[in-house]
Amino acid sequence: MDKELIIRSGTSAVDFALQKDGKLIELNKEEDSNKFNVGDIFIAKIRKAVPGLNAAFVNVGYEKDGFLHYHDLGPQVSSMLKFIKRVSTGKQKDYSLKNFTFEKDIDKDGVITDVLKSNQSLLVQVVKEPISTKGPRISSELSIAGRYIVLVPFSNRISVSQKIESKEEKDRLKRLVKSIKPKGFGIIVRTVAEGKKVAELDRDLQNLMDRWTGMCKKMYKPHHPSKVLGELNRASSLLRDIFNDSFTSITVDDETLYTQIKDYVGEIAPSKESIVKLYQSNVPIFEKYGIERQIKTSFGRTVSMSKGAYLVIEHTEAMHVIDVNSGNRSNKSRNQEDTALEVNMISATEIARQLRLRDMGGIIVVDFIDMGKAENRKTLFDHLRNEMSDDRAKHKILPPSKFGLIQITRQRVRPEMNIKTREDNPNGTGEIEAPILLINKMKTDLEKLIKKDHKKITLSAHPFIAAFLTKGFPSPRSQWFLDHKRWVKILPRDAYTYMEYHFHDKEGNEIL
After folding, report:
1. What is the SS3 assignment for 127?
2. Which end of the chain has the smaller Cβ count within 10 Å, N or C?
3. Cis, peptide link before residue 426, omega less than 30° from 0
């Protein structure tokens, strides 16, 4: 499995495209104007505590106040409030917590007004970016993520990622972390720490303690609200969370960003530093690596897949609905059940990719093609779970219902990636699908005709489309020849509209 990260730098944003085996699986954008990234920590003031909601609204500098529920306060919020007061007034200059006297934990079923008051200073962390009309979702149970561990101030708990299955390895990591854990801080051991030595964990811990100290220094006589600890830039946080030995290349088109990423990879994985490359060419980086083409074909309402199958993705206010369609494919060598299983398996792989790519969250209902056999439904369910196993967002998949529906819940912490794929209609008003999708449709139609054993095939199209199909090397037509060993004659037709095309047989009869 090869993983490539392609980074495009613009004047106001940086785009990150993650590809697995040549297929786009994640697309992220970091904009200069985005002040609220997941993981950012603010010192803010309580605007109002509302007993009826058992929550408080907090001014974090966004047009809508952040929402802080009682259960997101953390058991040691009283200790935090005491610490903030002492640090902000200059009474507390030791930020290590080793000599700090902790307060009693709050009651887990308590009331918000017993703990927080209006105009009180509080440290809060963004757990969900502002989405639609809602302000950021925040928590005062802080965590500072590193490469191998997560540091949790005002806690003493040590926990290990559930994805590490070996009990011996879990016990080993717990012992190592216990030996280096500073007093007053909890530690969560991340999955990538599996097999690591104590020196690597300790180096990561010291980096996190340095970030904590830097944050505390900003809390002396602070302006409210203000960001006291920013999450790493999106490139570094992406690498911190997903980087592993399967990465084969990281390509960047900006020299400053290239240097930052090379230094960061040199810190976390010195043996992989050489895979970071600076892209220098007149061809835009997303064009060169086929990202633009994949964006155009992956973000529309209809998503084409192999063998003529396709998905229809609909978004409603309450949920997302995905419909699986087999298309016009016919497979005489198999029965309907086998065909349904094959299409469903292809679709499950693409659905797992689409959820990550669009960062779809909330409730997702997938209408797979009905299958009569219970073992086939289990095979599909297991395959979908396996395909979604690398998804970093928390998710839960329910087994297929008797109607063939699978329900998925997926955590959403950022606004859904929504990219416009339709373009202005050159023939008049309205919008049409991107021209690149037209070429994909032609290819699918051609495959159907070849299966029906048509010998001499002619394609008639608008002169612009005909020129695109025949010019350059390899042209789409020459690629069709290499794939199917069948030469397609292309005729430009002035009378055709821009998106119109038809296939004809050797007698000139229209066959599609």
Report:
1. strand
2. N
3. no
| CA proximity to 499, closest of 466, 448, 461, 459 | 461
C-alpha 70: how far from chain center: 28
User: Taking a C-beta distance cutoff of 8 angstroms, is the pair 122, 116 a contact?
Assistant: yes
Q: What are phi and psi of 47, to 5 degrees?
A: -80, -50
Which tokens hold the place of 218?
A: 């900003």
22: left (phi over 0), alpha (psi -120 to 50) or beta: left
Statement: the pTM of the whole predicted model exceeds 0.70: no
Q: What are φ and ψ of residue 495, in 5° steps?
A: -75, -15
- Unique residue bearing structure tokens 């990465």: 247
Mean pLDDT estimate for the chain: 85
Give the pLDDT confidence score for residue 333 in this predicted structure. 46
505: enclosing H helix or E strand: none
Kindly list the distances between the CA atom of residue 300 and the CA atoms of 229, 295, 304, 335, 432, in Å, as whole numbers in the listed order. Answer: 37, 9, 10, 31, 11
Which of helix, strand or coil describes residue 466? helix
Which of left, alpha, beta for 246 (phi over 0: left; psi -120 to 50: alpha)?
A: alpha
3-state SS string for 90-106 = CCCCCCCCCCCCCCCCC
Q: Where are the beta strands (DSSP E) in 224-382?
A: 226-229, 247-252, 276-278, 302-304, 310-315, 319-325, 362-367
Helix or strand (DSSP H, E) at 164: none
CA-based torsion, 210, 212, 217, 223: positive or negative = positive
Q: Which helix (H) or strand (E) holds 296?
A: helix 291-298
Q: Are 439 and 384 in contact (CB under 8 A)?
A: no
Q: Tell me if 115 sits within 8 A of 59, measured CB to CB.
A: no
